[in-house]
Request: fold
Amino acid sequence: AQTVTQSQPEMSVQEAETVTLSCTYDTSESDYYLFWYKQPPSRQMILVIRQEAYKQQNATENRFSVNFQKAAKSFSLKISDSQLGDAAMYFCAYRRGGNEKLTFGTGTRLTIIP
Amino acid sequence: DAMVIQNPRYQVTQFGKPVTLSCSQTLNHNVMYWYQQKSSQAPKLLFHYYDKDFNNEADTPDNFQSRRPNTSFCFLDIRSPGLGDAAMYLCATSRATGTGFGQYFGPGTRLTVT
Reply:
């Protein structure tokens, strides 16, 4: 069974600084997708960024980028120029190709220090 | 804007009194999901529909049922809510399998059981 591990229950970063959230996963599949979701205190889960396993290039979305290390099964999220609105719970998630379900990590609560 | 809508946002019910939560989507996605999320935890998948095909998770209690009368709407029925069922209930949608797109979440319904 696939597992997703987020080893940092909580992180904090100074506003305007850069922070990296860690995620590792375990799978024997070759076709899969990885995601980072953000859940602010208002509780609506928002898709931040996605990565296809077959792509070597790391995904980027504005201030958000990933470091995808396929051999190491690592998928970290880097947030540059942190803003107060980035404060949220961040979940890493895995989806096997051909399967509708997501496997979530336990989440990392990110605090932004003004 | 295309979106996932959940009603009501807050629901209070009495112990043992049946309750129905609703979800609608304008994304025209094939797949609809229901999650239960307790405080500071990852969402837990209860079941999902792929079109009209219902897929129940093995550990979802029989107390939880779902209906999907058409593509746009999906309902979560809790037949006899217990105190342990108090949680946030999230509805999500996605396109059909194999595309690698993430799931799109609604704002959730917070259920209180008194």
